Structure formats: structure tokens, C-alpha cells
Amino acid sequence: MKLTVETLVRTDPASAWAAYNTPEDIMRWNQASEDWHSTSSRVDLREGGTFSTRMEAKDGSMGFDFEGIYTRVVPQSLVEYRMGDGREASVQFIPAEGGVRVRVAFDAEGTHPPEFQQQGWQAILDSYARYAEARSGAA
Fold first, then answer.
1. Residue range(s) defining the domain that contains residue 6
2. What would the pLDDT profile of 13-26 be if each residue is shown by its tens digit?
3. Which of 14, 62, 74, 92 has its CB 3.0 to 4.6 Å from that of 103, i.e. a possible disulfide?
4. Measured between alpha carbons, how far is 67 from 82 in angstroms, rounded to an integer?
């Protein structure tokens, strides 16, 4: 099952792209709630390149590595990747009135209900949008 989340980022395409794909930026926005954070991030943004972001509960109770391989990269437009468990995702950067629409489509995993997964990915994307707008001075 493919799930989709999206947001409008009130910034220019280059800034939206950079905030989404730069390790230092990823560590600032990649969490679904205030009690989680990303402690490291590595990005080799090219087809065949890999990525890995360490996500941890701030209380140290749990954590995991979100990692995979890029299967397609079109600068400032599209990133497609395969996660470590074989699921696939795509991130589109679509010019829109007032900014850039960022749309993420991803294969659901079988452990958690789809609604829960969609809420979590949307929360992360919303965190990204707030950060990207603040980073570019749009907020």
C-alpha cells in the first residue's frame, strides 16, 4: 500500500531542496514529535548513493537508523529511494504559488496501522516545512 503526505513550503526551490537533503539540516527537522531527535545524518545524494539518519527518543529509551539507497535523483525536482527493508519512496518538489509543494509517497510497512504511519510521516514533513521556511527567512 502506497501512502502520501504533502506540505507547502513557503520558500524557493533551491532552499527547499537544500533543507531536505543536507545532513546538518536533516538533523534539525527530522522528528515526528518534540521527544525525538536525529543524532546523525549522512547523505550521498546521487543515484546509487546511500543515506542514513539516526533517530532516537530524547530519553534514550529507543532509536533506529533510517537508511537506504537513492534510485533516482533529479535536482530540485525528485528524489526516489529504496529503504533498507526494501520499501520504496519518492519525494517530489513541485513549484506552486507561494512556494514549493513537497509530496512524499511511500510504501507502508506491515507492523503499524497505515493511519499511524501517515500521521508520523506527515508530522516529520510538517517539521521540515517549518524548518525550511525559518532557514530561508520566509517565516
1. 2-32+72-136
2. 999 999 999 999 99
3. 92
4. 9
